[in-house]
Amino acid sequence: MVKKLAADTNAQVQVLNTEGMLLGDSSISSTPIPVKILTPDVIQAISGENGVYIENLHNEKVLHVSVPIKNKINYIAVLRLSSSLEEVYNVIKKLVLFFGVVITASSLVALVIGFFIANRLTKPLNMVKKATQEMAKGNFKVRAQKISNDEIGVLADSFNKMAEELGQLEEMKNEFISNISHELKTPLTSIKGFAVTAMDMVGENSELYEYLNIIDEEADRLSRLVDELLDFSKIELNKIKLTFDDVDINCLIRETVVALKPVAENHGVNLICEKNNDNLVVYGDKNRLKQVLVNLIDNGIKACESGKTVKVVLEAKERAIIKVEDEGHGISESEMKHIFDKFYRGKNSRYSGTGLGLAIAKKIIEEHGGSITVESEENKGTVFTVTLPIKYHSVKLS
User: Fold this and answer.
1) Which is nearest to 289 in space by CA: 239, 246, 352?
2) CA–CA separation, 374 vs 387, rounded Å?
């Protein structure tokens, strides 16, 4: 019976008496040698309860299950089944490995699907966001790409319609400025001509001469404003024409400083050009580059009190670096964010004008493949830095 039970359960079956003495063993064909087994499971079964005990035998875990056998009155024996747990552990390991692989694969699949879904949702939104940022910079030609016909597609359509309308308004504004500037140019020229002619006809000591002189100066000021408006409209409409040629930037700076010396002296400002004997050539439009220098130096002069200094420095590194440094009142951090914006004028009245000079200067320098930046500290001064690509550079030996 013991061997049959062992065959049915695939386990070692032992029968013990109530004192733990071995009476029969399925693994032994003959009568077993009397051995007393008093493991925890057997002791528990002798007391009338089912016992379970896991034991390490020869580096192998073995499960022992002992149950008491009872007749109608007393417990008469103990039935003990023993089986190796190695196979069970191997099965568990395989199941754990299998489920681990399944969970990992499922997670990766879910991650990939989630990524594509998120990308599908966020990509059009990011495109609209970038287009909005471009529009905030004044680029009304930008359009958001429509990918789908859902709510995001409707948003892209609305954005594109708004951009188109704003672009048309911007173009109308630029055309209006251009037309008005042209219309103003002719009468201003006539007013200045009549004023100069009239000044020649009266004595310099007369009150009329003083009035005519004021008219002449105001006509000059208005002409400069009109010129700025014309430049602005050309830039905005991409009609500005640059005539590129080799420009000795060192000579150009010296010429500009010499031309503005009288202006600086009238303001009581020292205008200095640091000596640089290098032969530094850039490829650009000489007149437009001079226009930028005049604007920066003139602003520096206006920013300074009498007795202060404006210094122009030329350095040659990987690029030509022009610095216009002044000892003026400086620019606040909040104003510096908008200093190159169109029509922006600082709070200080010294920078009176259209607010286009620096915006035009920035555009001209960018058309030359360069950059213009500003650093400033209030009550200490401002430094405008212009960088331009170098075409040719050599050091002159003194």
Assistant:
1) 246
2) 12
pLDDT at 349: 45
**Do 21 and 34 contact (CB within 8 A), yes or no?**
yes
Burial status of residue 141 (CB atoms within 10 A of its CB: 0-12, 13-18, 19 or more): exposed
Q: Scanning the structure block, which residue is given the tokens 């191997």? A: 90
**CA atoms of 90 and 329, how far apart (whole Å):** 83
d(CA 99, CA 102): 5
Whether residue 175 has pLDDT greater than 80: no
pTM (whole model) above 0.85: no
Q: How do residues 227-273 score in pLDDT, each as one tens digit?
A: 777 777 777 666 677 889 999 999 999 999 999 999 899 999 999 99
SS (H, E, C) the chain: CHHHHHHHHCCEEEEECCCCEEEEECCCCCCCCCCECCCHHHHHHHCCCCEEEEEEECCEEEEEEEEEEECCCCEEEEEEEEEECHHHHHHHHHHHHHHHHHHHHHHHHHHHHHHHHHHHHHHHHHHHHHHHHHHHCCCCCCCCCCCCCCHHHHHHHHHHHHHHHHHHHHHHHHHHHHHHHHHHHHHHHHHHHHHHHHHHHCCCCCHHHHHHHHHHHHHHHHHHHHHHHHHHHHHHCCCCCCCCEEEEHHHHHHHHHHHHHHHHHHCCCEEEECCCCCEEEEEECHHHHHHHHHHHHHHHHHHCCCCCEEEEEEEECCEEEEEEEECCCCCCHHHHCCCCCCCCCCCCHHHCCCCCHHHHHHHHHHHCCCEEEEEEECCCEEEEEEEEECCEEECCCC
Tokens linked to 103: 């969970």
Distance CA 177, CA 182 (A): 9
Query: What is the C-alpha separation between 310 and 300, in angstroms, rounded?
Result: 6
Cα angle 376-377-379, degrees, rounded to a multiple of 5: 125
CA-to-CA distance for 80 and 57, rounded, in angstroms? 16
- Inter-residue contact 269 to 308 (CB < 8 Å): yes
- The tokens describing 143, both together, are 């359009």
